[in-house]
Amino acid sequence: MKLIYIRKRWLLSSFLILLLAFAGWQWSQPSAITTTGQVTNPENQFKINLVTGEFASKTEAGKEIEAYRWDPGTIVIPKGEEVTISIYGVNGKEHPFIIEGTDYKGTVQKGKETVFNARFEKEGTYRLICLTHSSIEKNGPMIGYIVVD
């Protein structure tokens, strides 16, 4: 029977080579995806994008029903920081809106973008309400929620 002798130097060298190979493999794996593009508004970098949407269906009796909504339905923004809110009209002719508890109001028209800057100094939940579709009877309620945190 033949014995195999392993020298400490060979064992240590093998371990270091494996360690370097593993470190090189880890280093070559991307931990973050590089993106391109520049901030177009550096003094106001926080921008929220919403769209108007519509759901339509028929009841069993054949009556057509529809409901309008803001999408996304809930947004979270930081307290005291100026944000740009952009709403693009996809469905519905126009949506006059208010943000409850504030002086912010406007109208979103189909195929157009409505953009305004807003700042909320008090934490809480503010309702973005479409005045045209404010209840079920008016194909709503078309209400979005702005959470200020």
From TrEMBL:
| Source organism superkingdom | Bacteria
According to the UniProt entry, the coiled-coil residues are: none
The record ties this protein, via InterPro entries, to: Cupredoxin, EfeO_Cupredoxin
Per UniProt, what is one Pfam family of this protein?
A: Cupredoxin_1
- Where is each EfeO-type cupredoxin-like domain found? 64-135
Name of protein: Plastocyanin
What is the source species?
A: Bacillus benzoevorans
Organism phylogeny: Bacteria, Bacillati, Bacillota, Bacilli, Bacillales
